[in-house]
Amino acid sequence: KVLVIGANGQLGSELTDALREKWGRENVLATDIRQPRQLAGGDRFELLDALDKEGLYRLIKQEGTTQIYHLAAVLSATGEKNPHFAWKLNMESLFNVLEAARELKVGKTYWPSSIAVFGPDTPKKDVPQYTVCNPTTIYGISKLAGEQWCEYYWKKWGVDVRSLRYPGLIGYKALPGGGTTDYAVDIYHKALEGEDYTCFLAKGTYLPMMYMPDAIQATLQLMDAPADSLRIRSSYNLGALSFDPEEIAASIRRHLPQFQIRYQPDFRQQIADSWPDSINDSYARQDWNWQPAYNLDRMTQDMLENLRVLKEEGHFA
Ligand code: VAH
Asked: From the UniProt record, which GO molecular function terms apply (predicted)?
């Protein structure tokens, strides 16, 4: 029995579908703070505020939950506009989940971290699993603190909580919500509308990125791995792609030759500049056979194909 918290988000909307596929619709309970726009027949959903500890315990007891995926968070850019709330939501919801896993003996727990745990003095290229982490966003600070709490619950109480430091995730099922890397999602929507794209990051801003199908695959592989095969209980580095706005624009132009990009960096440039360009994920490759499947051009082809269909169906209207 799987419980997903934050199931309507950019990651949640895709991971929940994959979990229904893997475990059966009837065994996955999706929750979020508001009703989803669409719910396919047989999909189960309940309202749950990630800060509502009593509600969480009630659902776990009534469901007999054996796995929790806690995906609710305030991301980097939004977090900088409201840092105290971002800390409260990101940390208190994690404490609720870790305590529930400990007290109600939930088998496995998943909680995403991010390359946002790295800071300006982290090496920029091929960032190792163990390195300097001085994040400059509240989002990054909360993810770094959360990683340490996950490791603590594992070491002190044997709570089997697992985590991945996702790069910027790019997917087509949900509109992005307040991330610094989300220019790489917006750009595809604008290109398909035949519009030029005004990018809020400057040319030459390289960031670690990953296509959503790769992120989903990595998550399922990590959660299926034997507990004693995992050397990392804070959060695994995870890498796939690294590109700047100019390179993704060129990749799009191979399909839509008229597409143009212009640059108008805003406050998110400072956040992006504090993050590295590329990640070393050798621990993930060795411990649970991680291997990304998408390069930039394959991602662009797949994104444009799927977005075209969804737009025709009025998915984002
Ligand atoms: C953000 N998409 O931009 C998220 C992610 C690596 C970045 O954590 O905040």
From this structure: L-threonine 3-dehydrogenase activity
Measure 116 CA to ligand 1 centroid, in angstroms.
Answer: 7
pLDDT in tens, 213-251: 999 999 999 999 999 999 999 999 999 999 999 999 999
User: From the CA of 156, how far away is ligand 1's center (Å)?
Assistant: 30
Summarised one tens digit per residue, pLDDT across range 166-181 is: 999 999 988 877 889 9
CA separation, residue 260 to residues 147, 153, 181, 244 (Å): 40, 49, 19, 15
- Reduced to 3 states (helix: H, G, I; strand: E, B; else coil), residue 168 is strand
Quote the tokens at residue 11: 């990651």
C-alpha span between 135 and 148 (Å, rounded)? 14
Three-class SS state of 209: strand
Pick the residue whose CA is nearest to atom 7 on ligand 1. 168
Query: Rounded to whole angstroms, how far apart are CA atoms 61 and 55?
Result: 10
137 C-alpha to center of ligand 1: Å? 11
Q: Which two tokens stand for residue 96?
A: 């609720």
The verdict on the CB of residue 180 being under 6 Å from ligand 1 is yes
CB 189, CB 307: distance < 8 Å: yes
From start to end of the chain, where are the E strands? 2-5, 28-32, 44-47, 67-70, 108-110, 113-114, 161-162, 164-166, 168-170, 197-199, 207-211, 236-237, 241-243, 261-263
Q: Quick one: which atom of ligand 1 is closest to the CA of 166?
A: 6
